[in-house]
Design brief:
This protein has 254 residues and is mainly beta. 11% of the residues lie in helices and 35% in strands. It has one domain. A hairpin with a 2-residue loop joins strand 5 and strand 6. It is globular, with a radius of gyration of 17 Å.
Amino acid sequence: MRFMKTTAPLVSSAMIITALIAGVGDGRVDAQQSRPSSGARIDVLSKTARSGVRYQLYFNNNCSAAFSNFRPNARDGKLFFCIPAAFTASDNNIDGVFICNGKVGNSDRVNPRIGGAMIIQDGACRIFPTNGGKLLTPEFVNHSAARKDSLFQQFQVVIQGHGEKFSDKTVCQRRGIATFADGKLAILESIDPLSLTDFGLDAAGFGVQDLLYTDMGPWSEGWYRNAEGKIIVIGQSRSLTHKQTNWFYLRSKS
């Protein structure tokens, strides 16, 4: 687990709560490449940032988002993408408060050093700053749980189109969940190593509106299902796959 300090712009908690309670949209994403099928799939796009760093973008097409503290089964043909999400703490537990389909975990362990979060409602997700965890009050968490939402804490690397600055200068492979102004959802993964700050700058350059980091390093192993139905493993460092504790995944809506 790595802690990094970031400074986030001031955002009205009342405004965020109102927006989140109102809902998070339909979660639909347009296809990025021409494919013969109109059903659920992951569209893969290779892209190079102005920095010269190479990326893979995994665009969601007609899938619903979900979060779980039980490992999703790759044999389930309705699953199309799966990656570790929140950090795993030194006690082998999820770092920070979380909700899985209405069930709250770590209710007394909001991590104030993790400045972002994702909430998933009816298969659609929204990334938002938490003001150092202050937004994640018992009232907010319980209200989300009552709606059967899911939620986890993570670093928000891009906020409203602007990359954040982090004190940690470690250079490694990076990955995050990105949303765009037009409603598209993609997982952005670097091929080349870079710092977290530079990751945010590159993502903003791609037009990412909000970007939430996901656990990497030796926890980075994930996978997606290609057009032929084959599971493709992603993540360059996989030594602690067996210690992953939570996952963000995409599944078909039907």
